[in-house]
Amino acid sequence: MPRIVDFHTHAFPDSLAARAIKTLLDEAPGIRAYLDGTTGDLLRSMDRIGIEKSVVCCIATRPEQFGPILKWCGQIRSDRLIPLPSVHPADPVRADHIRCVADEGFLGIKLHPYYQDFFADEDRMMPLYAQVADLNLLLVMHTGYDIAFPRIRRADPAKIVLIKERFPALRFIATHLGAWQQWDEVREYLIGRQIHIEVSFASDDLEPEKARAMILSHPAGYMLFGTDSPWTDQGRTLEWLEGLRLPPDVMTGVLGGNALRLLRLSRDEFIKDI
Asked: Which of 34, 48, 119, 188 has the fewest beta carbons under 10 Å from its own?
């Protein structure tokens, strides 16, 4: 049985989970929550489906949220849950906070251009990318449109290519099969490049044949399983992926092999790989 790593999940402190889920559902009519937002419910979902590890992505919607998020990430960190704290781009001491993430032993950070009000290719973001790359941290970024916001092009595929060309050592993970609901551009700009992509939130909006072709056309080792739980069901996303009938070696890599390798790569190994 292949090892399974979900590279894109969300959870909240138990005391805040119900309120956070309600607020986010109110902001995005048409989506639903499949879990209650707690790490306990996430772990139960993982157990039901056979997921070994989940990357828990946090989002600091205000600079002052860094401290509480970092503390909570330390509390939930385990062999099965890999939390990524978040730094707000407008944080006046964001460089210190990024250094703190590395010093505390976390593997990376999560950024969200819509909830944090930035464009991925802004000049003010470049020192952040440079520092994250220098510290060998992962950077998971929401890419493509967001269901809860107007269709402003904050993190489209062309911007991702610009970032990666400027910072080739940056361990950047594009979400939602490259860019949510911008998949023609994903095929044009991202597929075939050595850029890590996770597959969440594509099953309802992209024809299976197109998704399969995109995965098979991407470099081996650079496609990752992700669900965006609790906003999708982990089991349903796994069934969708299985339904694409990928070759066994590709499927093993996407389900978890590629993620496990990425999580343990040193900076020198990553640069050598590209």
From this structure: 48
